Amino acid sequence: MGAQDPGGGDAVSSPLVVSESVLRKVLLSYFYVSVWIFLSFTVIVFNKYILDPKMYNWPFPISLTMVHMGFCSSLAFILVRVFRLVDLPSSPSMTPSLYVKSVVPIGALYAHSLWFSNSAYIYLSVSFIQMLKALMPVAVYSTGILFKKDDYKRSTMLNMLSISLGVAVAAYGEARFDMWGVTLQLAAVAAEATRLVLIQILLTSKGISLNPITSLYYVAPCCLVFLTGPWCAVELPRLRAMASFQPDLLTFCTNSLCAFALNLAVFLLVGKTSALTMNVAGVVKDWLLIAFSWSVIKDTVTPINLFGYGMAFLGVAYYNHVKLRGLKAKESQVSWGGSGILSCKSMTGHNN
């Protein structure tokens, strides 16, 4: 049977049309990945530039985080309430009781995660911070076991130990090692891992699905409130003493806009591709940041640094492979049972 003419119906799609469709999807995927890598790269380097005493010299991480949260919450409010471009979840609705029980703990952890992570840029190089972030799967898995969301498996724990060993080797070879900076970054990883697990427990389990804009709408104001206390105690007296400092509004507004755009890029990348794509893109971004830190910022990257991070990278890659294999097995079981296909968007890997 061949393809009939337009009047006869039942025409068969030509291979050329299929190839163009596949090519378009591939090009769009590369576009989403490129946008996310660019924005994530830009936000990290931009924050480093503002906070580092040797660059812009504005070492106030709580203030910078509050600027981000104030900007993001205001813009999210405008998009949701004024222009109504995004609908809030209606089933179940976000009641005051649910907000206090679910969103407030997540907002508190998010505030501390951003505060500690931004603070680390004052003391550590961009390359070394990216190496320390390889511990995220370890923290998420350990927290999941603690909250009984993950089962203890000896093979997985050995994998976590290999990642930890790789990061330890990278830390041993770090030329600009600062214990306080490392402590801050590890605290940021722990807070972020706990936040991710609590999102599963407090929101996902209740059937609440939030995209980046609605997440910022609910979480950013709460995060801003939790940062106010530390800001008044730690940074406000120092800011008052800097009477001669005139903040560059263009710099801070551009920085905040990049942070907001990054949230949208995450939603776009995961929504149009998968979390596995984001994890792979995250590895590419980390290597680019390490190369940029070494070649442009002139941070020292030692062979021991690279060897240790290489060990951690292999451990993270294997962990993602095992998670993907498990998700595909579940997907096959559901398909065989006639219940549809599972989504592969719940991977937990190397964070951005």
From TrEMBL:
Any coiled-coil ranges, and where?
none
Q: Which GO terms describe its cellular component?
A: membrane
Keyword tRNA processing included in the entry's annotation = no
Q: Please state where this protein is localized.
A: Membrane
Which segments cross the bilayer?
27-46, 66-86, 98-115, 121-144, 156-173, 179-203, 215-237, 249-269, 303-320
Keyword set, alphabetical order: Membrane, Transmembrane, Transmembrane helix
The answer to whether keyword Signal applies is: no
A Pfam family cross-referenced in the UniProt record is TPT
Q: Which residues form the Sugar phosphate transporter domain?
A: 31-320
Q: Which PANTHER family match?
A: SOLUTE CARRIER FAMILY 35
Record's protein name: Sugar phosphate transporter domain-containing protein
Annotated source species = Rhynchospora tenuis
